[in-house]
Amino acid sequence: MPAATLHVVATPIGNLGDLSPRAQQVLREVAAICAEDTRRSGQLLAHFGISTPLVALHEHNEPQMAERLVARLLAGESLALVSDAGTPLVSDPGFRLVRAARAAGVKVSPVPGPSALIAALSVAGLPSDRFAFEGFLPAKASARRERLAALAGEPRTLVFYESSHRIEESLADLRQAFGEERPAVLARELTKLFETALDGTLAELHRRVQDDPDQRKGEFVLVVQGVGEDADARLAEGRRVHAILARQLPPSTAAKLAAEITGAPRKALYGAGPGE
């Protein structure tokens, strides 16, 4: 019997009306649906009257489950893969299953639809011809600041996911690493009842989040403009180099050396060490 198809199905990130007719048809016709959270996906299926069996597939069991699911595909059963919301594999499980299915010669077919990443980018009004998706920043402050220091000179628009309990800290670290005036957009609860998309500098967005508790609730996508040319690029590179030097040298010495290496103004670097 020929292998069937693994359908990678995008599901709504908020508004249930965004589940396409094709996605509904596929979810009805497959033998089973591999879901990150069967309870959450079960609610979605119930809303549309879909009774297809669910199989749990998450980060903890995916390595073990992938082999079993590929065996079902090779036996002729078509399956669907969904995540809690949006397009699977974008900061969600599913990579191991897709890779195993392709390695086994199984057809893997996308059913496109909602994606918080693309939704935020489409309304941000920032350059979108070239962008880099960084997913979730590290939870630990030191690792997060190190990651941001490495990205400070990135010319492409950057897109991050962030949770409600870390959004204020992440904005503070972005403001420190990228500079007060870097343009950005903070998209919150996209396609949901309390959807907002705030634009401004990183400093302005940080203050908005600090001052308004409602802006610290929900799920966030942060879109940050890439570094500009000349002075902005030198400053971003100066901050990156300074962050590295400041781990071993006094702040004033680190700032002086970083300024000499990159051409960034020393005064803008002094006092910008990790943790401040």
* Order of adjacent strands in the largest pleated sheet: 3-2-4-1-5
If you compute it from the alpha carbons, what radius of gyration comes out, rounded to the nearest whole angstrom?
22 Å
Low-confidence stretches: none
Shape: elongated
Distance between the termini: 63 Å
Query: How many domains make up the 3D coordinates?
Result: 3
What does this entry look like structurally?
With 276 residues, the chain is of the alpha/beta class. It has three domains: 5-114, Tetrapyrrole methylase, N-terminal domain (Cobalt-precorrin-4 Transmethylase, domain 1), CATH 3.40.1010.10; 117-224, Tetrapyrrole methylase, C-terminal domain (Methyltransferase, Cobalt-precorrin-4 Transmethylase, Domain 2, 2-Layer Sandwich), CATH 3.30.950.10; 231-269, no CATH class. It contains eleven helices and ten strands. It has helices at residues 21-29, 38-47, 62-74, 95-103, 116-124, 141-151, 167-178, 202-211, 231-245, 251-262, 266-269; strands at 5-9, 32-35, 54-56, 79-82, 107-111, 131-136, 157-162, 183-188, 196-201, 220-224. Strand 2, helix 2 and strand 3 (54-56) form a beta-alpha-beta unit. Helix 6 packs parallel to helix 7, helix 6 runs antiparallel to helix 9 and helix 9 crosses helix 10. The N and C termini lie far apart (63 Å). The mean pLDDT is 92.
